[in-house]
């Protein structure tokens, strides 16, 4: 089918099965923001977003936190366009500001095997933060390899399916979807 005759847009792609609508996400993110606002009332909060997947979640979450806070980003290698976890974690971009004495929440898009997050936490534990917690939009517990991983703030638990949207990609596509959807079939190069 050519682009001209295609009857659906990226947002109505029939290969996507919506799991959480934009409204459901907004409501849940607002709840998480309220909880964090309560928990960090007298703290020196830094949100550390893990690029690129957490960018949408982080930007919505921080606007639901009614506190003085700062943000920073790290980038780590993860799936590298494949739909299975390599377990190979490498720091591609480090923080730009020290976190010594700060109260840090690592903001993830999704925790799957937990390998990425546990490596990241090991590294951040050596940086002298006052506290270190985790917020993830999605938790996929079934494939978890790192069993003792503590998630302090979780948006939704999901089944063992590959999901896209709201920052999450498949081969760098779909990050702009306002909802979260299961990708039903692997994509052809459209
Ligand atoms: P883990 O190390 O916990 O297995 O994987 C963490 C990273 O893998 C996430 O930050 C994300 O980039 C990627 N990932 C895991 N599951 C999914 C998924 O269902 N969809 C997408 N798009 N990425 C995923």
What does this structure look like?
It is a single chain. By secondary structure, the chain is α/β, with parallel strands linked by helices. The protein has a single domain, classed as Rossmann fold (3-Layer(aba) Sandwich). The chain has a six-stranded mixed beta sheet with strand order 4-3-2-5-6-7, sandwiched between helices. The protein has a three-stranded antiparallel beta sheet with strand order 1-9-8. α2 links the parallel β2 and β3. α1 crosses α2. The radius of gyration is 17 Å and the shape is globular. It starts with 15 loop residues before the first strand and ends in a 7-residue tail after the last strand. 27% of the residues are buried. The mean pLDDT is 91. The site of guanosine-5'-monophosphate (5GP) has 21 residues, from β5, α3 and β8. Guanosine-5'-monophosphate binds next to β5, α3 and β8.
The largest pleated sheet is described as: 6 strands, mixed
Top CATH class:
Alpha Beta
* Class from helix and strand fractions: alpha/beta
What is the rounded Rg? Answer: 17 Å
Number of domains: 1
CATH architectural designation? 3-Layer(aba) Sandwich
Principal-axis shape equals globular
Q: Uncertain runs with pLDDT below 50, 5 residues or more?
A: none
What's the end-to-end separation, in Å?
A: 10 Å
Mean pLDDT: 91
> Secondary-structure element sequence?
EHEHEEEHEEEE
Spatial order of the strands in the main sheet?
4-3-2-5-6-7
């Amino acid at each position: 089918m050519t682009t001209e005759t295609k009857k659906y847009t990226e947002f109505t792609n029939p290969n996507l099965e919506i799991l959480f609508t934009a409204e459901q996400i907004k409501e849940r993110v607002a709840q998480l923001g309220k909880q964090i606002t309560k928990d960090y009332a007298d703290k020196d909060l830094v949100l550390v977003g893990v690029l690129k997947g957490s960018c949408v979640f982080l930007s919505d979450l921080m606007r639901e936190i009614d506190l003085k806070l700062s943000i920073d980003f790290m980038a780590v290698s993860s799936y590298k366009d494949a739909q299975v976890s390599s377990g190979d974690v490498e720091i591609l971009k480090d923080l730009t500001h020290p976190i010594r004495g700060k109260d840090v929440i690592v903001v993830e898009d999704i925790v799957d095997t937990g390998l990425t997050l546990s490596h990241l936490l090991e590294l951040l534990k050596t940086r002298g933060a006052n506290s270190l917690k985790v917020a993830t939009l999605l938790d996929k517990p079934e494939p978890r390899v790192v069993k003792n991983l503590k998630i302090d703030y979780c948006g939704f638990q999901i089944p063992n399916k590959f999901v896209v949207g709201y920052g999450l990609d498949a081969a760098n596509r779909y990050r702009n979807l306002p909802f979260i959807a299961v990708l039903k079939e692997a994509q052809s190069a459209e």
